[in-house]
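Structure tokens please, single chain.
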Amino acid sequence: MQRSCLAAVVVVCLSAGFFVSPSAQAGRRYIEPRTATSTGAPFSGGVLVGDTFYLSGALGLEANQQVPASADTEATNVLNNVQKTLSQAGMTMDDLVSVQVFCSDVSHYDAFNKIYRGYFKQEYPARAFIGSGKLLFGARFEVQGMAVKRR
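Here you go.
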């Protein structure tokens, strides 16, 4: 009898939204959405839930899907792509709170940082620069992150 009462309370509370976080109730908005019926890669560009944006990994390839000749150009391309996706979500680079940079060769660390510094006006987000080995399409960099809208 006690278990069935407890189960009834949990069901009522869940259906009323008492145990669901506010961000889960806020709904989702997909940037560059793809679905199971879409062609192409099986992921969206990012997902906005409340004031939090989850950015998919971005590459810095040229328009012809080729890796740029220099690490500087590729870093600029990938950060422009991140900036564009954030903009579509109504955010800026300064809204980023966490960034992961996957790099095929960590000797490109200084080249990436030289370009990266120019994309921020406020505090830098938390960041990891990860030596990943080979990346998709032979890219040097892939950038993934999370952003929270500043108030």
